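Page 37, continued from 36.
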Protein backbone atom coordinates (compact mmCIF):
# COMPACT_ATOMS: atom_id res chain seq x y z
CA UNK A 1 0.00 0.00 0.00
CA UNK A 2 1.18 3.49 -0.88
CA UNK A 3 -0.01 6.49 1.11
CA UNK A 4 -0.43 9.60 -1.04
CA UNK A 5 -0.82 13.19 0.16
CA UNK A 6 -1.95 16.21 -1.82
CA UNK A 7 0.19 19.34 -1.99
CA UNK A 8 -0.79 22.81 -3.12
CA UNK A 9 0.83 24.87 -5.87
CA UNK A 10 -0.05 28.17 -7.53
CA UNK A 11 -1.15 29.87 -4.30
CA UNK A 12 0.84 32.11 -1.97
CA UNK A 13 0.43 33.03 1.67
CA UNK A 14 -0.01 31.08 4.88
CA UNK A 15 -2.61 28.70 3.43
CA UNK A 16 -0.15 27.32 0.89
CA UNK A 17 2.78 27.36 3.33
CA UNK A 18 0.90 25.24 5.88
CA UNK A 19 -0.12 22.61 3.31
CA UNK A 20 3.37 22.46 1.83
CA UNK A 21 4.88 21.96 5.29
CA UNK A 22 2.48 19.08 6.01
CA UNK A 23 3.18 17.44 2.65
CA UNK A 24 6.93 17.78 3.14
CA UNK A 25 6.74 16.11 6.56
CA UNK A 26 4.56 13.33 5.16
CA UNK A 27 6.84 12.67 2.21
CA UNK A 28 10.27 13.09 3.81
CA UNK A 29 9.55 11.55 7.21
CA UNK A 30 6.81 9.02 6.51
CA UNK A 31 7.56 7.99 2.93
CA UNK A 32 4.33 9.31 1.43
CA UNK A 33 3.89 10.09 -2.25
CA UNK A 34 2.98 13.64 -3.26
CA UNK A 35 -0.04 14.43 -5.43
CA UNK A 36 0.45 17.97 -6.71
CA UNK A 37 -2.65 20.15 -7.07
CA UNK A 38 -2.49 23.48 -8.86
CA UNK A 39 -4.93 26.24 -7.97
CA UNK A 40 -6.68 27.56 -11.05
CA UNK A 41 -8.64 30.77 -10.55
CA UNK A 42 -11.42 29.69 -12.94
CA UNK A 43 -15.17 29.71 -12.27
CA UNK A 44 -15.55 26.27 -13.83
CA UNK A 45 -13.67 23.83 -16.04
CA UNK A 46 -15.07 21.74 -18.91
CA UNK A 47 -15.76 18.24 -17.55
CA UNK A 48 -13.50 16.49 -20.05
CA UNK A 49 -10.62 18.82 -19.18
CA UNK A 50 -11.32 18.42 -15.45
CA UNK A 51 -11.25 14.61 -15.54
CA UNK A 52 -8.06 14.66 -17.61
CA UNK A 53 -6.44 16.84 -14.96
CA UNK A 54 -7.63 14.52 -12.19
CA UNK A 55 -6.13 11.55 -14.05
CA UNK A 56 -2.82 13.38 -14.22
CA UNK A 57 -2.87 14.18 -10.50
CA UNK A 58 -3.59 10.56 -9.47
CA UNK A 59 -1.50 8.83 -12.16
CA UNK A 60 0.59 7.11 -9.46
CA UNK A 61 -2.47 5.74 -7.63
CA UNK A 62 -3.12 1.98 -7.44
CA UNK A 63 -5.93 -0.17 -6.09
CA UNK A 64 -5.76 -0.46 -2.29
CA UNK A 65 -3.88 2.79 -1.70
CA UNK A 66 -4.64 5.51 0.86
CA UNK A 67 -5.03 9.18 -0.09
CA UNK A 68 -4.70 12.08 2.34
CA UNK A 69 -6.42 15.12 0.87
CA UNK A 70 -5.43 18.47 2.34
CA UNK A 71 -8.54 20.64 2.39
CA UNK A 72 -9.46 23.02 0.96
CA UNK A 73 -7.66 22.91 -2.39
CA UNK A 74 -8.66 26.59 -2.82
CA UNK A 75 -10.35 25.63 -6.04
CA UNK A 76 -14.15 25.56 -5.69
CA UNK A 77 -15.97 23.15 -3.36
CA UNK A 78 -17.47 21.59 -6.50
CA UNK A 79 -13.90 20.91 -7.68
CA UNK A 80 -13.01 19.30 -4.35
CA UNK A 81 -16.11 17.11 -4.42
CA UNK A 82 -15.45 16.00 -7.98
CA UNK A 83 -11.84 15.15 -7.11
CA UNK A 84 -12.67 12.96 -4.12
CA UNK A 85 -15.37 11.19 -6.18
CA UNK A 86 -12.83 10.54 -8.93
CA UNK A 87 -10.74 8.47 -6.51
CA UNK A 88 -13.52 5.86 -6.43
CA UNK A 89 -12.40 4.66 -9.86
CA UNK A 90 -9.90 2.57 -7.90
CA UNK A 91 -10.87 -0.36 -5.65
CA UNK A 92 -10.40 -0.22 -1.88
CA UNK A 93 -9.15 3.36 -1.86
CA UNK A 94 -9.24 4.88 1.63
CA UNK A 95 -9.71 8.63 1.86
CA UNK A 96 -8.49 10.87 4.67
CA UNK A 97 -9.34 14.57 4.66
CA UNK A 98 -6.88 16.78 6.54
CA UNK A 99 -8.84 19.95 7.30
CA UNK A 100 -6.74 23.12 7.21
CA UNK A 101 -9.57 25.63 6.90
CA UNK A 102 -13.36 25.35 6.98
CA UNK A 103 -14.06 28.01 4.35
CA UNK A 104 -17.72 28.67 5.32
CA UNK A 105 -16.60 29.60 8.84
CA UNK A 106 -13.92 32.08 7.78
CA UNK A 107 -16.22 34.74 6.31
CA UNK A 108 -19.90 35.37 6.90
CA UNK A 109 -20.55 35.63 3.15
CA UNK A 110 -19.39 32.01 2.71
CA UNK A 111 -21.60 30.50 5.41
CA UNK A 112 -24.11 29.28 2.81
CA UNK A 113 -21.45 26.81 1.60
CA UNK A 114 -21.42 24.87 4.89
CA UNK A 115 -23.84 22.11 3.74
CA UNK A 116 -21.65 21.46 0.68
CA UNK A 117 -18.52 21.21 2.84
CA UNK A 118 -20.29 18.86 5.26
CA UNK A 119 -21.30 16.68 2.30
CA UNK A 120 -17.66 16.71 1.15
CA UNK A 121 -16.34 15.73 4.60
CA UNK A 122 -18.87 12.90 4.72
CA UNK A 123 -17.08 11.31 1.76
CA UNK A 124 -13.94 10.75 3.86
CA UNK A 125 -13.19 7.57 5.80
CA UNK A 126 -11.23 9.54 8.42
CA UNK A 127 -10.99 13.25 9.21
CA UNK A 128 -8.04 15.12 10.67
CA UNK A 129 -9.50 18.08 12.56
CA UNK A 130 -7.85 20.85 14.56
CA UNK A 131 -9.80 20.30 17.78
CA UNK A 132 -12.58 18.23 19.30
CA UNK A 133 -14.64 21.44 19.26
CA UNK A 134 -14.27 21.58 15.48
CA UNK A 135 -15.41 17.96 15.13
CA UNK A 136 -18.44 18.51 17.39
CA UNK A 137 -19.41 21.67 15.49
CA UNK A 138 -19.35 19.75 12.22
CA UNK A 139 -21.39 16.93 13.79
CA UNK A 140 -24.00 19.44 14.94
CA UNK A 141 -24.25 20.69 11.38
CA UNK A 142 -24.78 17.40 9.58
CA UNK A 143 -21.49 15.50 9.66
CA UNK A 144 -21.93 11.76 10.03
CA UNK A 145 -20.16 10.08 12.92
CA UNK A 146 -16.57 9.66 11.72
CA UNK A 147 -13.29 8.25 12.84
CA UNK A 148 -11.21 11.35 13.44
CA UNK A 149 -7.82 12.51 14.64
CA UNK A 150 -7.18 15.77 16.50
CA UNK A 151 -4.14 17.75 15.35
CA UNK A 152 -3.95 20.14 18.38
CA UNK A 153 -1.12 22.30 16.94
CA UNK A 154 0.24 22.90 13.47
CA UNK A 155 3.94 22.28 13.08
CA UNK A 156 6.41 24.83 11.80
CA UNK A 157 9.80 23.31 10.83
CA UNK A 158 12.60 25.88 10.86
CA UNK A 159 16.00 26.28 9.24
CA UNK A 160 18.94 28.34 10.48
CA UNK A 161 17.25 29.87 13.53
CA UNK A 162 19.85 31.62 15.69
CA UNK A 163 19.48 29.80 19.01
CA UNK A 164 22.29 31.86 20.57
CA UNK A 165 19.76 34.72 20.79
CA UNK A 166 17.31 34.40 23.68
CA UNK A 167 14.05 36.39 23.54
CA UNK A 168 13.90 39.11 26.17
CA UNK A 169 11.08 40.64 28.22
CA UNK A 170 11.01 43.77 26.08
CA UNK A 171 7.34 44.71 26.58
CA UNK A 172 6.64 44.19 22.90
CA UNK A 173 3.61 42.45 21.42
CA UNK A 174 4.17 40.96 17.96
CA UNK A 175 1.32 40.35 15.54
CA UNK A 176 1.62 38.57 12.19
CA UNK A 177 -1.49 39.67 10.33
CA UNK A 178 -2.93 42.18 7.88
CA UNK A 179 -2.91 45.54 9.67
CA UNK A 180 -5.91 46.75 7.65
CA UNK A 181 -8.18 43.94 8.84
CA UNK A 182 -7.79 44.35 12.60
CA UNK A 183 -9.28 47.32 14.41
CA UNK A 184 -7.06 46.90 17.47
CA UNK A 185 -4.03 47.69 15.28
CA UNK A 186 -5.56 50.96 14.07
CA UNK A 187 -6.59 51.90 17.62
CA UNK A 188 -3.39 50.93 19.41
CA UNK A 189 -2.23 53.49 21.99
CA UNK A 190 -0.04 52.16 24.78
CA UNK A 191 3.07 54.17 25.72
CA UNK A 192 4.45 51.24 27.72
CA UNK A 193 3.95 48.37 25.23
CA UNK A 194 4.99 48.49 21.59
CA UNK A 195 2.84 46.69 19.01
CA UNK A 196 4.92 45.33 16.13
CA UNK A 197 2.85 44.19 13.14
CA UNK A 198 4.21 42.13 10.25
CA UNK A 199 2.18 43.54 7.39
CA UNK A 200 2.38 45.90 4.43
CA UNK A 201 2.77 48.80 3.92
CA UNK A 202 5.77 49.40 6.14
CA UNK A 203 5.24 52.39 8.43
CA UNK A 204 5.94 53.60 11.96
CA UNK A 205 3.55 55.51 14.25
CA UNK A 206 5.63 56.74 17.22
CA UNK A 207 2.66 58.50 18.82
CA UNK A 208 0.80 55.18 18.94
CA UNK A 209 3.86 53.07 19.92
CA UNK A 210 3.08 51.07 16.78
CA UNK A 211 5.40 49.80 14.06
CA UNK A 212 4.25 48.06 10.88
CA UNK A 213 7.41 46.33 9.70
CA UNK A 214 6.31 45.09 6.28
CA UNK A 215 5.85 41.53 5.04
CA UNK A 216 8.67 39.10 5.91
CA UNK A 217 9.56 35.75 4.40
CA UNK A 218 9.17 32.83 6.79
CA UNK A 219 12.83 32.54 7.82
CA UNK A 220 13.22 36.32 8.23
CA UNK A 221 9.97 36.50 10.21
CA UNK A 222 11.13 33.83 12.66
CA UNK A 223 14.52 35.51 13.10
CA UNK A 224 12.94 38.94 13.61
CA UNK A 225 10.48 37.60 16.18
CA UNK A 226 13.25 35.93 18.15
CA UNK A 227 15.43 39.06 18.11
CA UNK A 228 12.52 41.31 19.07
CA UNK A 229 11.39 39.25 22.05
CA UNK A 230 8.21 39.93 23.94
CA UNK A 231 5.06 37.99 23.05
CA UNK A 232 3.29 36.66 19.96
CA UNK A 233 -0.37 37.64 19.70
CA UNK A 234 -3.13 35.34 18.39
CA UNK A 235 -6.24 37.53 18.38
CA UNK A 236 -9.24 38.88 16.52
CA UNK A 237 -12.03 41.24 17.54
CA UNK A 238 -14.20 40.42 14.52
CA UNK A 239 -17.19 38.49 15.95
CA UNK A 240 -17.40 36.00 13.08
CA UNK A 241 -13.64 35.27 12.95
CA UNK A 242 -13.49 35.11 16.76
CA UNK A 243 -16.04 32.29 16.71
CA UNK A 244 -13.93 30.44 14.16
CA UNK A 245 -10.83 30.86 16.33
CA UNK A 246 -12.61 28.96 19.11
CA UNK A 247 -12.59 25.90 16.85
CA UNK A 248 -9.32 25.99 14.95
CA UNK A 249 -5.58 25.81 15.55
CA UNK A 250 -4.05 29.02 14.21
CA UNK A 251 -0.87 28.65 12.17
CA UNK A 252 0.28 31.93 13.80
CA UNK A 253 0.40 30.12 17.15
CA UNK A 254 3.00 27.70 15.83
CA UNK A 255 4.96 30.47 14.11
CA UNK A 256 5.46 32.33 17.39
CA UNK A 257 6.33 29.15 19.28
CA UNK A 258 8.78 28.05 16.58
CA UNK A 259 10.52 31.42 16.93
CA UNK A 260 10.73 30.91 20.70
CA UNK A 261 8.16 33.49 21.85
CA UNK A 262 5.53 33.02 24.55
CA UNK A 263 1.93 33.54 23.41
CA UNK A 264 -0.97 35.85 24.13
CA UNK A 265 -4.27 34.09 23.35
CA UNK A 266 -7.95 34.58 24.00
CA UNK A 267 -9.29 32.71 27.04
CA UNK A 268 -11.67 30.78 24.75
CA UNK A 269 -8.95 29.45 22.44
CA UNK A 270 -9.13 25.61 22.24
CA UNK A 271 -5.56 24.96 23.45
CA UNK A 272 -5.62 27.61 26.20
CA UNK A 273 -5.45 24.86 28.87
CA UNK A 274 -2.31 23.43 27.31
CA UNK A 275 -0.77 26.91 27.07
CA UNK A 276 -1.52 27.58 30.74
CA UNK A 277 -0.49 24.09 31.91
CA UNK A 278 2.82 24.24 30.05
CA UNK A 279 3.29 27.91 31.04
CA UNK A 280 4.10 28.99 27.49
CA UNK A 281 1.90 32.06 27.33
CA UNK A 282 -0.85 34.28 28.65
CA UNK A 283 -4.61 33.76 28.28
CA UNK A 284 -6.79 36.87 28.58
CA UNK A 285 -10.45 37.79 28.13
CA UNK A 286 -9.63 41.01 26.28
CA UNK A 287 -6.63 42.97 25.03
CA UNK A 288 -6.72 45.37 27.97
CA UNK A 289 -6.27 42.44 30.36
CA UNK A 290 -3.51 41.02 28.15
CA UNK A 291 -1.61 44.31 28.21
CA UNK A 292 -1.88 44.52 32.00
CA UNK A 293 -0.44 41.01 32.30
CA UNK A 294 2.43 41.86 29.95
CA UNK A 295 3.32 44.91 32.06
CA UNK A 296 3.19 42.92 35.30
CA UNK A 297 5.31 39.98 34.22
CA UNK A 298 8.80 40.01 35.72
CA UNK A 299 11.99 39.15 33.87
CA UNK A 300 12.28 35.97 35.93
CA UNK A 301 8.72 34.89 35.05
CA UNK A 302 9.24 35.72 31.40
CA UNK A 303 12.55 33.85 31.20
CA UNK A 304 10.88 30.74 32.65
CA UNK A 305 8.19 31.01 29.97
CA UNK A 306 10.86 31.23 27.28
CA UNK A 307 12.56 28.09 28.64
CA UNK A 308 9.21 26.29 28.60
CA UNK A 309 8.57 27.45 25.03
CA UNK A 310 11.98 26.15 23.94
CA UNK A 311 11.13 22.73 25.33
CA UNK A 312 7.64 22.64 23.80
CA UNK A 313 8.74 24.09 20.45
CA UNK A 314 10.96 21.07 19.77
CA UNK A 315 7.76 19.20 18.88
CA UNK A 316 6.65 21.94 16.47
CA UNK A 317 10.04 22.53 14.86
CA UNK A 318 10.53 18.82 14.20
CA UNK A 319 7.05 18.09 12.88
CA UNK A 320 5.81 15.76 15.61
CA UNK A 321 2.18 16.94 15.71
CA UNK A 322 1.89 16.36 11.96
CA UNK A 323 3.69 13.01 12.03
CA UNK A 324 1.47 11.82 14.88
CA UNK A 325 -1.76 12.95 13.17
CA UNK A 326 -0.87 11.48 9.77
CA UNK A 327 0.28 8.17 11.25
CA UNK A 328 -2.74 7.87 13.54
CA UNK A 329 -5.11 8.63 10.65
CA UNK A 330 -3.59 5.88 8.50
CA UNK A 331 -3.91 3.39 11.37
CA UNK A 332 -7.54 4.40 11.92
CA UNK A 333 -8.42 3.96 8.28
CA UNK A 334 -6.58 0.63 7.82
CA UNK A 335 -6.38 -0.98 11.26
CA UNK A 336 -9.32 0.04 13.45
Amino acid sequence: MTVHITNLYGLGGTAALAQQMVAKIGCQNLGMNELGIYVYQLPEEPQQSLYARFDGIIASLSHGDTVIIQSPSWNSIEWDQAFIDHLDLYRDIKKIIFIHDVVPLMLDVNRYLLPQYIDYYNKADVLIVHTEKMYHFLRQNGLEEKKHVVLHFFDHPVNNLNYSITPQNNKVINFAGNAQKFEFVKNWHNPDIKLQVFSNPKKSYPDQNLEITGWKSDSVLLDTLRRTGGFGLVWSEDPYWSEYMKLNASFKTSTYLAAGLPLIVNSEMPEKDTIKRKNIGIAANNLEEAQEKVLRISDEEYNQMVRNVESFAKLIREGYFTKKALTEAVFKVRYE
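The radius of gyration is 21 Å. Flag for discussion at group meeting. DSSP finds 14 helices and 13 strands in the chain.
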